[in-house]
Amino acid sequence: MAEIADGHYKYQAPIDAYGNGGFRFDDMSHIGSLLCLPSGMHKWTIEDITLLSIDHFKFVFEQAEKIDVFLLGTGQDIAFIDEPVRREFRDRSIILEPMSTGAAVRTYNVLMAEKRAVSAGFIAVDRAK
Fold first, then answer.
1. Cross-referenced Pfam families, in alphabetical order (predicted)?
2. The pTM is what?
């Protein structure tokens, strides 16, 4: 199975599997957290939801005009997202939906299949639920 060498795959793709600290999609494997955007799949440098800041969404906000919904996979459990981050999404008219990574992956795949303008950020987890 191939890996994303430079941290970027140029197509947005559904997630085939998650767990063991990474994700599988389009016959590839990615270790670590992942951003799924209109510009493709990107390595995401966040491992702990408690360290999340506006800076982690730079690529998301650059593509805001192509995104209606952003699913945030917060790890094994759902987590509270600080108001400054929520405000940035509202200011760009993007619906922010935080949920566990497993729920976010499943929702992302459904919305992708419906051809919705969905993007996502998934914090990698060790075990799939």
1. DUF498
2. 0.92
In contact, 108 and 36? CB cutoff 8 Å: yes
Query: In the block, which residue shows the tokens 């976010």?
Result: 104
Q: Is residue 40 part of a domain?
A: yes
Q: Is the dihedral of CA 72, 75, 78, 81 positive or negative?
A: negative
DSSP state letters, 74-111: -SSS-----HHHHHHHHHTT-EEEEE-HHHHHHHHHHH
Are the C-beta atoms of residues 120 and 35 closer than 8 Å to each other?
A: yes
CA 85, 18, 86 angle in degrees (round to 5)?
Answer: 10
Domains identified in the chain, total number: 1
Q: Which residues pair with 124 in a beta bridge?
A: none
Tokens of 11: 């197509």
Instruction: List, for residues 93-121, the tens digit of each pLDDT value.
Output: 999 999 999 999 999 999 999 999 999 99
Domain ranges, residue 46: 2-120
